[in-house]
What does this fold into?
Amino acid sequence: MRVPSPTVSLLAATLLGSPAAGQGRWLLQFGGATSLPGADAVGDAALYGVAGGVVEWTGDRLAATASVHGGLSADDATGADFVSAAGTLELFTGPGTGVGVMGRGGAFRIRDPFTYRTGSLRGGPAARFVAGRVAATLRAEAGTGSTLVEVRPSPDRVRRAERDLWSRGLDLDVAVRGDRWIAGGTVGTWESAGGPFRRVEGSATWAARRWAVRMDAGAWDTPLGTEWTGGVALVVPVGGAVTVAATAGRATPDPLTLVEAGDQAGVVVGWTLATFGGPPPPPSRVEWVDDGAVARFRLDDSRARSADQVEVMGDFTGWSPTPMRRDGGAWTADLPVAPGVYHYGFRVDGEWYVPEGLSGNVPDEWGRMNATLVVADEDEGGLP
It folds into this structure.
């Protein structure tokens, strides 16, 4: 029996815009999933209802997630109720090239028709290299864990099978990012309690204005033979706080827990219940050059990354829209300004937009929210 992971990829967080540096959120997830028998297996698909929560934090140096999920089987003959928990952490010396550490852990349990539980913890050093739109990350990982199976052939008899798990290996990820796409590849090698594992994988992601899609494929050399994996995931934001993610494909094996590859699919709705942390970075700053003050605008969030055109307008432009230019996934513009207090905003694909949570956001006489830019005299330090 193959029980699918209840956690559907949070693609919207990285493709359609992640929280600003130093931002976190609490996400509720619910939906359905299925695991399918292998090509040489006999049986019906196992269907599950899944629900749970995710807390994540994204900062300049630290990224972390923690999740708990549960699943109810639609048919006890083909599946089993389960509960799972997982966590990840990456800490680097900075947002670009640097060194750091990574760690992740997980636990999984079912109790009927037999007891099965597994737990694992892994981590190690990492190094990241960034040059323009290309990023490469090398990770060295060591892991430990255990599994326990308890079967009751009769009410007064219990058979137990317990196994200690371990693994160690290396992973190398390389990714190239465009304005709307990310393409990458991964190679890895491990030694484990179950034998050697090797993998080669590739992925491609495309982010359109209202959706994002990711496709991946890979080949795993495992102690049981070669496994071909891959799948597709579609993410569609619905409003500002809700995202629908649909996935289908063949999940990868795990060298540490020795979970085999398996076919699975699911549809999960994610609802952002709350955000926390410091306010998002302001989309404007002032610098003084020889000819005077220059306001530098940079809009880099989910709305901007999926846009075809972004313009800035405000008191300093006579409220005429000024086109911004693409810079990776962000939009930028530099405009000369004189000392004073200005109100402004952006037009994203023709619609008025001001990021929420900015200090100085004020409504105008029509109730439309405007951002505020303060330009102090140069002898006062520029921007107060």
Summary: The chain has two domains: 11-277, 284-380. The longest strand covers residues 134-154. The radius of gyration is 25 Å.
